[in-house]
Amino acid sequence: MTSPRDNTLSDRDAMRVTQFGHPPTPVREPMPKRNDRNALIRVTHASIGVTDTGAAQGDYLLQPVRGFVPGYDFVGVIEQLPSVTQSQLRVGQRIAGVLPRMGAHASVISVAPSLLVPVPDSLDSATAATVPLDAVTAWFALDALALTRGTVLVQGAGGAVGSWAAQLATEQGLTVYGTASSRSRAYAGQFTTSLVDYHDPNWITQIIEATNGGVDGAIDHTGSSSIRRAVRQTGGVVRTAFGGAPGHQRSATASGFLTSALLRYARPRERICSVPIIVATRRAEYRDALTKLFAAVSRGELVPPRPRIVSPTDYAQAFAANIANPGEKMVLER
Ligand SMILES: NC(=O)c1ccc[n+]([C@@H]2O[C@H](COP(=O)([O-])OP(=O)(O)OC[C@H]3O[C@@H](n4cnc5c(N)ncnc54)[C@H](OP(=O)(O)O)[C@@H]3O)[C@@H](O)[C@H]2O)c1
Question: What SMART domains does the entry give (predicted)?
Answer without folding.
Answer: PKS_ER (SM00829)
